Amino acid sequence: MDILNKNSNISEFILLGLSSSREIQICFFVTLILVYAAIIVGNLLIVVSVMFDHHLHSPMYFLLANLSFFDLCLSSVATPKVISDFLRKRKTISLWGCMVQMFFMHFFGGGEMSLLIAMAIDRYVAICKPLHYKTIMTHRMLTVFLLLSWAVGLIHTTSQMAFTVGLPFCGPNVVDSIFCDLPLVIKLACTDTYVLELLVIADSGLLSLVCFILLLISYTIMLVTLWHHSFSASSKALSTLTAHITVVTLFFGPANFIYGFPFNSYSVDKFLSVFYSIITPFLNPIIYTLRNQEMKAAMKRLRSQHIVKHRRVTKAVVFLFINNTQSKQFKKQY
Ligand SMILES: *[C@@H]1O[C@H](CO)[C@@H](O)[C@H](O)[C@H]1NC(C)=O
């Protein structure tokens, strides 16, 4: 708190949002509520299915469930405030709130990035070293991957925010987006931010670009490997791979664009930031479940289990009720 207010004479930022038209804002409000609800339900469904269905207890699905967990966190950093902001005329956020938003955005974003790489390694071993899969992708390896993802997220965000938190802000304080985005906020500081800008370009832009290129190369190698095998045997693997490639492109595409050229302020940036913070978490469950027979089967089992439980409870209630009325009648009669 103190560091923030010491050298800044403004206490809040004003967010411009996506549009100034009232009708369009209400339209965004309704759409975003529905999308956010779908994000929560879809990703929770994946986490619950993987946790409770032993058919899905394999490294690939554990990683997928953890990705869904990251998606839940990432979309919850800014979306609830963004939604309620659509109904406000003056959208403000405190200096502190802004810093917290950026911290967690990059924390979960960096974590998700590392997890996508772990998922690629998992598929690479499965396709290119199938005989060693069981010995390489052990439970310990999975735990290492998960811990690394959280650590990368933490180091990534701390390395940038450590220098951002102390920046002096003395106006203007208008952020042309729906939530605080690192390049936009750094530009508002009333000091020379050249070194910090370079740091952000290297830390966010270059990192995501390098990861993206490495991922594309490794997925290409996997596709070529599959192509050399007989096609019928590998069509399941192929559909898994295309799902992964779609998600990787959806996540890294906008991130590369925003952080590759962060200080040029294109007006499309705010729409792109909607993309990786809301659209990708929304699409992930759809992409992974619609094309995946095992996932669909697991969800069916989950539903039928639920119905069986529901029936049992109903039966028990009816039984108690009947017993109760019978004993009352019994008492009445005698
Ligand atoms: C993440 O993966 C681990 C396996 O290492 C698993 O035990 C855990 O349930 C997963 N987390 C979630 C939220 O599904």
| Biggest sheet details | 3 strands, mixed
Q: Report the average pLDDT across residues.
A: 84
Fill in the CATH topology. Answer: Rhopdopsin 7-helix transmembrane proteins
Number of domains: 1
Radius of gyration: 25 Å
End-to-end separation: 75 Å
Helix-strand category: mainly alpha
The unique ligands bound to this protein are: 2-acetamido-2-deoxy-beta-D-glucopyranose
The CATH homologous superfamily: Rhodopsin 7-helix transmembrane proteins
Order of helices and strands: HEHHEHHHEHHHHH
CATH architecture: Up-down Bundle
Order of strands in the sheet with most strands: 2-1-3
Overall form: globular
Beta percentage is under 5%
Low-confidence parts lasting 5 or more residues at pLDDT below 50? 328-334
Query: What would CATH call the class?
Result: Mainly Alpha
Give me the number of helical elements. Answer: 11
Number of strands: 3
State the helicity in percent bands. over 70%
Features:
single chain, 334 residues, mainly alpha, Rhopdopsin 7-helix transmembrane proteins, three-stranded mixed sheet, globular, disordered C terminus
Brief account:
The chain has 334 residues and is mainly alpha-helical.
Topology overview:
Elements: H1 2-6, E1 12-15, H2 22-52, H3 59-85, E2 92-94, H4 95-128, H5 133-136, H6 139-164, E3 174-175, H7 182-187, H8 194-228, H9 235-260, H10 269-290, H11 293-333
Helix pairs in contact: 2-3, 2-10, 2-11, 3-4, 3-10, 4-6, 4-8, 4-9, 6-8, 8-9, 9-10
Notes on the protein architecture:
The protein is an all-alpha fold and 334 residues long. It has a single domain (2-291), classed as Up-down Bundle (Rhopdopsin 7-helix transmembrane proteins). Helix content is 77%, strand content 3%. It contains eleven helices and three strands; from the N terminus they run αβααβαααβααααα. It has helices at residues 2-6, 22-52, 59-85, 95-128, 133-136, 139-164, 182-187, 194-228, 235-260, 269-290, 293-333; strands spanning 12-15, 92-94, 174-175. A three-stranded mixed sheet has the order 2-1-3. It starts with a helix and ends with a helix. The relative contact order is 0.13. Mean pLDDT is 84; it is low at 328-334. Bound molecules: 2-acetamido-2-deoxy-beta-D-glucopyranose.
